[in-house]
Write a structure and sequence with these properties.
The chain has 255 residues and is an alpha/beta fold. It is built from 10 helices and 7 strands.
Length: 255
């Protein structure tokens, strides 16, 4: 039996808001010692991943988007006003149910757009860990009883109005090579960082760029194929052999 997957959305880099400074180390401890522990206490066989385990801080890679779309459960910590967290939460709400919103009870009030959403308040204490695990356990039991019930207003409205989501799998339209190239670059944080630096006018060492491609041969192959299909790259053609004028031997005829 395969494990259920759970993706945790939360800030992973240093945070600064309302004169409060929170380091990436503090956030990692909050994830390891509280959120992850509470999830495992509620469901020991859960396969849990956080964004920093698949990407560098500040990037939204295709791997993150895939986990947002396909994970059985997503836990979003909205304690801190982080744009990536809100963006990924919105994407998840538009994709499928199975989202749990949590918030530190001592954190500032969330923005108006998400203040009305159901969420679990937690305390970063030993007692708070137990209470959070109990809340997660109740949620998992509820989903098991109602697996197809929408859990946010977007999906509720889509169900009510019988909104037809685009079926990208059924279309036969080819993906534009430019989009393929962008998605390939997004699959390599190191390569994306180098190309973004180049786009900002910084000098990039060609050897460093080649090392980034060598470290991600699959990405390099996908990117090269997309560039060739778009006509932005072509292999050089070998020079044609130059043939000199043919010399015909004159035959002597006997008289």
């Amino acid at each position: 039996m395969s494990k259920n997957t759970c993706f945790v959305i939360m800030p992973i880099g240093d945070q600064s808001f309302d004169r409060v400074e929170l380091s990436a180390h503090d956030l990692k401890k909050r994830y390891d010692d509280l959120i992850r522990e509470a999830l495992l206490a509620a469901r020991p066989d859960l396969d849990i991943t956080r964004a920093d385990e698949v990407a560098i801080p500040g990037t939204i890679t295709s791997d993150i988007l895939t986990r947002v779309m396909h994970s059985d459960f997503v836990v979003a910590d909205v304690s801190f006003p982080n744009p990536n967290v809100f963006y990924e939460l919105g994407l998840r709400h538009a994709c499928r149910a199975g989202t749990i919103i949590i918030r530190d009870g001592k954190a500032p009030k969330p923005p108006f757009d998400i203040a009305h959403l159901r969420h679990i308040e937690y305390q970063n204490t030993p007692t708070g860990l137990k209470e959070l695990a109990d809340a997660f356990r109740r949620y998992f039991d509820h989903v098991a009883l109602h697996p197809n019930r929408p859990d946010n207003h977007f999906l509720e409205l889509a169900k009510l109005t019988q909104y037809q989501f685009p079926d990208y799998g059924a279309t036969e339209e080819p993906v534009a090579p430019e989009i393929e190239a962008i998605m390939a670059i997004m699959g390599s944080p190191d390569l994306m960082r180098l190309l973004m630096s180049a786009g900002q006018g910084e000098q990039i060492d060609p050897a460093q760029l080649l090392q980034a491609f060598a470290a991600e041969p699959g990405v390099a192959r996908q990117l090269l194929g997309a560039l060739m299909r778009s006509g932005h790259f072509q292999f050089p053609q070998p020079p044609k052999q130059i043939q000199g004028p043919l010399k015909h031997k004159q035959r002597r005829t006997k008289t």
